[in-house]
Amino acid sequence: MVDFFVDELDLAGLGFVRSAAARTGRPGYHPAVMLKLFIYGYLNRIPSSCGLEREAGRNVELMWLTGRLAPDHKTIADFRRDNGPGIRRTCAQFVELCRRIGVLKGACIAIDGSKFRAVNSRDRIFTKGKIANRIADLEADAGRYIAEMVRVDRQEEGEVRAEKVAHLAKRYGRVRQHIQHLQAMDRALADAPDGQISLTDPDARAMATCARNSGMVGYKVQTAVDAETHLIVAYDVTNQGHDRDLLVPMAAAAKEALHRDEIHVLADKGYFSGRQILTCYEAGITTTIPRPETSGNRAKGLYVKADFAYEADADFYRCPAGEALTYRYTTEEDGLELRRYWTGECGGCPIKARCTTDKERRITRWAREHLIEAARARLIGPTEPMTVRRGTVEHPFGTIKAWMGATHFLTRRLRNVRTEMALNVLAYNIKRMVALIGIRGLMAAVKG
């Protein structure tokens, strides 16, 4: 099946280099051979170039697939590095194949992100706060060394004293050298756009995790997964730890890959953004996203905005005490049109203490709030969209991470990590299609 699929590809059109041999010199490995090698490797959990080099010389399936060619690990790694755009287009080509044969319809898409480790330890990434703390610790160490040298010089005599003082002076010199290095790095942080410097992988970033006082250095992988087939329709890799401005790019990429005029997108509250929801609506993308509760009033036993019922026909809010908060004026903040509502009856309200400490309780409503209210109505529907979302988009992440094992991306720099993720996504989609229509069905689809 891998052999059929790669042979049907227009490798030159997809952007693979050396797809046509030069007129002089010894011909290099054809991109088709190398691509087959990589697809087989990721299908069988052999992603490393050294592992593929070993398997090409002893694995009978690979010997047949590559025509008994056995490239060395450097050649294999260079192919992945130099043909990133072609590999990513190949992944998109397989998604197009799934859509063309009718397996992938894409009426409902679930979007989510997950953090993957990079080739960079936490000790090799620096922020301004981390540098300041480390310099303070080193300054304290330097002070202790000076105090110890003074004590030894006063209390001890002879060669022992000279030897100890020399040893302490050497350690003090290393500490001062380390401090100077950190100070130079602190000055370089002024030019870093996000306030981080990563030494091993310059594009990797420190990201917070659910564990308290913990984190990881890595990348955030975004996927858009079809709710019916669990095929990954679109993906991306970023080095930002949040999802707030990624709803539109991922939804638009999924819509383009599916060639649909309208799609329905499910996402968690990390993607919630009024502007993003509006942009999706204007592009024919229906979004179902829970609204995060940013106020801490509910935990204090106070009323929140959700406790005020909006009556659209009369354009006012009904408070928990039954009073009507009428429309007063419209303002604009950060490019959003906002409407203000309040009532003058709060002064004598018996439950005012649970509502506000101001003169009256004011409610702000976005002019396009009806889009958020429609999404909230879909959330409580019989289909349980958030349950569908969890069962759809988290499954591929778990599968891919299980294939990778307790490890990290093998490549460095964002462009190379995107290529590596494309191979993971392609392998996942191929296995998923085999589970859906079988090997013979997939081979017939490729040939057709």
TrEMBL record:
GO terms for biological process: DNA transposition. InterPro entries: IS1182_transpos, Transposase_11, Transposase_InsH_N. Pfam families: DDE_Tnp_1, DUF772. Residues 213-430 form the Transposase IS4-like domain. It comes from the Bacteria. Transmembrane segments: none annotated. Residues 17-81 form the Transposase InsH N-terminal domain. GO terms for molecular function: DNA binding; transposase activity. This is IS4 family transposase.
